[in-house]
Amino acid sequence: MSGSGADTVAELVRRQWGDHRIGLRDEHHTLSHHEVAAGAAARAALLVDLMPPLPGREPHLGILLDNTPEYPLWLSAAALAGAAVAGINPTRRGAELARDIRHTDCRILVTQRAHLPLLDGLPLPGLRILVTDTDAYRELLAPYGDARPGDATLGPVRPDSRFLLSFTSGSTGAPKAALCSQGRLAAAGASLVAHFGVRREDVHYVCMPMFHGNAVIADWAPALSAGAGVALRARFSASGFLPDVRRFGATYFTYVGRAVQYLLATPPGPDDRAHPLRLGFGTEAGAVDAARFRERFGVPLVEGYGSSEGGAAIQRTPDTPTGAIGRAAPGDDLAVLDAETGKECAPARFSPTGRLLNADEAVGELVNRGRNPFEGYWRNPEAEAVRLRGGWYWTGDLFYRDEAGFLYFAGRTDDRLRVDSENLAAAMIENILARWDRAAGVAVYAIPDPVAGDQVMAALALREAADFDPADFAAFLAAQPDLGTKMPPRFVRVMRELPLTATNKIHRVGLRRASFLCEDPVWWRPTPDAPYEPLTPEATAALQAEYARHGRTPTQEARG
């Protein structure tokens, strides 16, 4: 049983009945907790009528919505009815979008008029589409206005009832739909409530997209567990962040990827600390940006780690060192292993200034060798086998561990670089480059070396009114005590802003595919010790000829 005393999400939704405090808001709507429960009950009753149990048909519905109140209402409705929700990514197109809907066996798709053009001409036989911002939808829902939570279900609702099918954002291949039961989500929400002391008076600001696990598991679920309010932003906006926080009285938010960098890039104001926020929780902000955020806005950012699949989680404690995520919770067996040998990596050794001295032998894949709540992927046994090699859960994320057992994030296994036979982690280089005072955003990634292995390339989004000064950048690199000799980028792409995925993570696949063959200005070092200079068309042609002589291209995804 979870710490909230609720075994299922359905029970948490039912608890809102009779609670007339403000429960859900956006810029256009305000609903009490009771109205949320009533709205969920109405939609659950409609769902049961539209999706009766049928042999061979799954009780799955897709949600293709921005962060409107309909999203949490339909999540709540699915919980009450015993159905499962597939969050559909609105940045997917054509055959890929159709594949996501069909792969998760959706019988109903809930969407809005703005997204209808995405569905034009797609082969989606038998799919019932509900368009929330239409008169037809309101008329369809009207007869169910007197429904109460628990009136209509598709069958018994238990802790192991399937609830979420959350697509993971892999760098290659079709996205996998990770499974999450009602019990696991209820337990995750209760755990965060206990860890962060979430109160009924809190308001959770959901500005990350709800089709992604971060917003649902780390933001909506703890609010539901604690009886706290929820405030929605249809789509993340850096300029709208503080006005929203003040308008809604938000006290907690989650972030993913580079959203923090975009917030820091907004013009500073004298009232930057005039807000009720007390905490941000997320991943990959980086120590430098987290410190800048706290200094400017007065809000601590707590870096967490928990895979979308639920296979491993790291617990942060008060004595966690700067830069570390935390360590394994009591009873968990997390290890950093060499993926090729399966042996445990050496403990990290640091210089007096904090530089990692033995990255090549200390960085490996985080593996859970003990119990884990991974519930599998929807109809993808091959992917499950990769995750559960040897009976252990392999996260696909790079870490290193110090002598005291604290774990430090070093990036995705897909983001590992091998330069001159030395293994490097992109995230570690990014954290260093982020210190440059002209940089608003940084992405580091591998491009193929003309002969073997990789070369380091960086994309930089500069602060407002800043220019790329090659001499200043080179001097900055030379002054960083923890920048190893293989880490400085050979190529630097200067961009107005970094490309992001729909979940506000850097679109690394696109950056790698473009390599230095892009329209943005690119600076490079012809040799490791040379000054940075513009990459001219003549130099580009010479580089391409060098790649061709060795049977390689600068845009291939090769490693080795």
Q: Main attributes?
A:
7-stranded mixed sheet; 560 residues; alpha/beta
Oligomer: single chain
Mean pLDDT: 92
Q: Give the percentage of residues in beta strands.
A: 15-25%
State the share of residues found in helices, binned by percent. Answer: 25-40%
Please identify the structural class as seen in this structure: alpha/beta
Can you offer a commentary on this structure?
It is a single chain. The strands form six sheets. The chain has a seven-stranded mixed β-sheet with strand order 2-1-10-9-11-12-13, sandwiched between helices. It has 560 residues and is α/β, with parallel strands linked by helices. The mean pLDDT is 92. The two termini are 48 Å apart. β18 and β19 form a beta hairpin. The chain is built from 17 helices and 26 strands. The chain is 29% helix and 21% strand.
Please provide a brief summary of the model.
The protein has 560 residues and is an alpha/beta fold.
Ordered list of secondary-structure elements with their pairings:
Layout lengths: L8 H6 L7 E4 L4 E3 H18 L9 E5 L5 H12 L2 E4 L6 H10 L4 E4 L4 H4 L8 E4 L3 H7 L20 E6 L9 E5 H15 L6 E4 L6 H14 L2 E4 L5 H11 L3 E4 L3 H6 L14 E4 L4 H11 L3 E3 L1 E2 L6 E2 L19 E4 L21 H4 L1 E5 L12 H7 L5 E9 L5 E6 L3 E4 L2 E4 H8 L5 E10 L5 E9 L7 H9 L12 E5 L12 H7 L7 E3 L8 E2 L2 H13 L11
Parallel strand pairs: 1-10, 3-4, 3-5, 4-7, 5-6, 9-10, 9-11, 11-12, 12-13, 23-24
Antiparallel strand pairs: 1-2, 7-8, 14-15, 16-17, 17-18, 18-19, 20-21, 22-23, 24-25, 25-26
Helix pairs in contact: 2-3, 7-8
